[in-house]
């Protein structure tokens, strides 16, 4: 359905996307995972013919984005990060306009608008001005405009960003429902998002392809490692953080130890394990053996940053700086 | 063709859903109404004077009232057009809605033409407001209607030209105020160029020829000169063509 080969997009000074290749089969939901600025949006913009690639090719349903943009555009529905909405228009008026723009005949457009309004559950705001809608409704109107012409491929750029948890769940369900009829590419920087909605995942970082795999395989790879928060206090006299860190690093299966906090004689560390190693029991034993008090020991989820570090082979910290957004 | 109409209708709806259309039409109607009153009253006063002095002065509504009024309308248009065009592309680039157009199966020229025709139709609405006053003249006198129509054709052509320039300028920026300001400056400059007609030197004449206003004078007199029509049409084409080239180059650079 979608074939991307050696795709490169260079801006004036930076390389946004560097030699990316992947394929998406019909009916799949593919998650594009990466921190902000990784090149997700740029890749999507190339696929939707908004930007031409600098090098490489991308085809949608067999049509090349450079040679046949018109045919590609007919077959693609796109929800950009900020939904392209006109605040001065009413919802149904807007959807009619987009439908006509996408090439639906005036005879059919009314029926299609009714269908997508029902599908995206925006019926109760259909005659409201878009400018007056809440963020969640706007996002759904954005989705409705993306599917109005029943495209083969749906490209959704961060469809759940900025929504509250309830809206996120609703949007995810909606995307899942759409999956049967459409091939979907969605981008996100939240790992759980991919786990919930996608069949396959494409991970990019700094414009480069890091991994492309099925979600099941990827989570297995990641589940192997764990991160633990550990609070140690001294039983007698002050503790030297360096000594404690050194001791913890010696525990079998520990990949690295990060000092987090030190006050009132209590030291907090974050300890990460190697692939497939369980380290909590060993850590507890090591602390107690050294004659320190173990105040707290709990598992913390791996952040996206750490996953990236693992996938990119533990590069330096500044190579992947996820931002909230 | 169908896509142009869809986009044009959307643009026109947007103008009337926002205060812009009402602002432009009101500004024009107030200024025009004032000037219309002044010039008609002056004409009537001359008429009375001629009667009292018993002289039979040749008086013509077309020449003494309508022609200067149409010329005045053309000048007011220079000031209103930046208000109409500044949002055309700049607003969509700022809010990101341009992505909808660029990823829909429509060609760049359809987008540009649709937007330009939408803006032109708003300008025609403005001119319709001026037509009401002219219609009053027909109620009380017998002006010749042909030069009036030709004058309006000239106004539409001149408006279309300035709108095309404004469309191009709006496509080059995300900032509506920059787009409006720059368009206003260009309109003003094209108007000022007409002041150089008195100098016979060829370069002054060439500059004067470039002025939008000098080409309107024929229309105001009720004369359709193909030279003027071609001037306006080629200027419109140039403006819209430059817009499409710019959109294309942005796509590759951005």
In short:
The complex is a heterodimer of chains A (325) and B (254). With 325 residues, chain A is an alpha/beta fold.
Fill in the keyword field for this structure:
heterodimer, A: 325 residues, Rossmann fold, Alpha-Beta Plaits, 6-stranded mixed beta sheet, 11 helices, 34% helix, B: mainly alpha, 81% helix
Please give the domain count of chain B: 1
Q: What is the top-level CATH class of the largest domain in chain A?
A: Alpha Beta
Shape of chain B: elongated
The number of strands of chain A is 14
Biggest β-sheet of chain B: count, sense, barrel? none
Coarse structural class of chain B = mainly alpha
What percent of the residues of chain A sit in helical stretches (DSSP H or I)? 25-40%
Question: What form of chain A results from the Cα inertia axes?
Answer: elongated
Q: How would you describe this protein?
A:
The complex is a heterodimer of chains A (325) and B (254). With 325 residues, chain A is of the alpha/beta class. Chain A folds into 2 domains: 2-220, Rossmann fold (3-Layer(aba) Sandwich); 226-301, Alpha-Beta Plaits (2-Layer Sandwich), CATH 3.30.70. Chain A is built from 11 helices and 14 strands. Chain A has helices at residues 40-47, 69-74, 91-101, 106-119, 135-147, 165-178, 191-197, 215-223, 241-249, 280-289, 304-311; strands at 2-10, 15-24, 29-33, 55-60, 63-64, 76-79, 153-157, 183-188, 200-205, 208-214, 227-233, 254-263, 266-273, 293-300. In chain A, the strands form 3 sheets. Chain A has a 6-stranded mixed sheet with strand order 6-7-8-3-9-10, with helices on both faces. In chain A, strands 2-1-4-5 form a 4-stranded antiparallel sheet. Chain A has a 4-stranded antiparallel sheet with strand order 12-13-11-14, covered by helices on one side. In chain A, a hairpin with a 4-residue loop joins β1 and β2. In chain A, α4 (106-119) packs across α5. Chain A is elongated and about 85 Å long. In chain A, 41% of the residues are buried. The model of chain A is unreliable at 314-325 (pLDDT under 50). Chain B has 254 residues and is mainly alpha-helical. Chain B has one domain. Helix content of chain B is 81%, strand content 0%. Chain B contains 11 helices and no strands. Chain B has helices at residues 2-17, 19-52, 61-85, 90-95, 98-102, 108-140, 145-171, 176-192, 202-210, 216-221, 226-253. In chain B, α6 (108-140) packs antiparallel against α11 (226-253). Chain B is elongated. Chain B starts with a helix and ends with a helix. The model of chain B has no long low-confidence stretch (mean pLDDT 90). Classes of the chains: A alpha/beta (325), B mainly alpha (254). Chain A binds chain B through residues 11-12, 48-52, 70-71, 73-74, 76, 78, 80, 82, 84-86, 88-89, 93, 97-98, 100-103, 145, and chain B through 3, 6-7, 10, 13-14, 17-18, 95-107, 251-254.
């Amino acid at each position: 359905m979608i074939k991307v080969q050696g795709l490169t997009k260079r801006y004036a000074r930076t390389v946004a996307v560097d030699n990316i290749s992947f394929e998406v089969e019909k009916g799949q939901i593919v998650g594009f995972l990466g921190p902000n600025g990784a090149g997700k949006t740029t890749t999507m913009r190339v696929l939707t013919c908004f930007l031409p690639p600098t090098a490489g090719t991308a085809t949608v349903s067999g049509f090349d984005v450079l040679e046949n943009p018109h045919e590609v555009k007919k077959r693609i529905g796109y929800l950009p990060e900020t939904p392209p909405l006109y605040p001065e228009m009413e919802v149904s008026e807007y959807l009619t306009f987009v439908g006509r723009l996408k090439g639906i005949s005036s005879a059919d457009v009314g029926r299609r608008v009714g269908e997508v309004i029902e599908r995206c559950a925006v019926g109760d705001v259909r005659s409201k001005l878009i400018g007056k809608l809440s963020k969640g409704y706007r996002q759904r109107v954005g989705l409705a405009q993306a599917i109005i012409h029943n495209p083969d491929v749906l490209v959704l750029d961060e469809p759940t960003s900025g929504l509250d948890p309830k809206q996120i769940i609703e949007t995810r369900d909606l995307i899942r429902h759409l999956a049967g009829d459409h091939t979907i590419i969605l981008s996100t920087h939240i790992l759980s998002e991919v786990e919930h909605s996608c069949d396959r995942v494409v991970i990019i970082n700094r414009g480069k392809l890091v991994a492309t795999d099925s979600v099941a395989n990827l989570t297995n790879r990641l589940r192997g490692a764990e991160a633990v928060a550990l609070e140690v206090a001294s039983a007698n006299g002050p503790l030297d953080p360096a000594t404690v860190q050194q001791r913890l690093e010696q525990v079998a299966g520990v990949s690295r130890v990060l000092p987090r906090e030190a006050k009132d004689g209590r030291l907090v560390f974050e300890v990460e394990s190697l692939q497939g190693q369980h380290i909590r029991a060993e850590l507890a034993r090591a602390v107690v053996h050294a004659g320190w008090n173990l105040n707290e020991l709990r598992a913390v989820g791996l952040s996206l940053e750490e996953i990236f570090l693992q996938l990119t082979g533990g590069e330096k910290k500044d190579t992947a700086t996820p931002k909230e957004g | 063709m169908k896509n142009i109409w869809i986009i044009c209708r959307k643009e026109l709806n947007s103008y009337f859903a926002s205060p812009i259309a009402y602002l432009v039409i009101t500004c024009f109607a107030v200024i025009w109404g004032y000037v219309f009153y002044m010039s008609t009253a002056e004409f009537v006063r001359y008429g009375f004077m001629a009667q009292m002095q018993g002289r039979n002065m040749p008086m013509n509504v077309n020449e003494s009232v309508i022609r200067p009024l149409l010329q005045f309308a053309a000048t007011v248009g220079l000031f209103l057009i930046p208000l109409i065009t500044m949002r055309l592309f700049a607003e969509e680039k700022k809010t990101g809605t341009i992505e909808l157009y660029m990823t829909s199966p429509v060609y760049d020229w359809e987008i540009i033409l649709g937007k330009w025709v939408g803006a032109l139709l708003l300008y025609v609405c403005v001119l319709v407001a001026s037509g009401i006053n002219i219609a009053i003249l027909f109620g009380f006198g017998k002006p010749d209607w042909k030069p009036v129509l030709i004058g309006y054709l000239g106004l539409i052509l001149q408006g279309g030209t300035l709108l095309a320039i404004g469309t191009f300028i709006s496509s080059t920026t995300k900032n509506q105020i920059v787009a409006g300001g720059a368009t206003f400056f260009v309109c003003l400059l094209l108007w000022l160029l007409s002041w150089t007609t008195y100098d016979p030197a060829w370069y002054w004449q060439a500059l004067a020829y470039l002025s939008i206003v000098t080409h309107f004078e024929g229309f105001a007199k009720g004369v359709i000169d193909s030279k003027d029509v071609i001037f306006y049409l080629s200027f419109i084409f140039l403006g819209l063509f430059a817009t499409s080239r710019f959109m294309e180059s942005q796509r590759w650079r951005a």
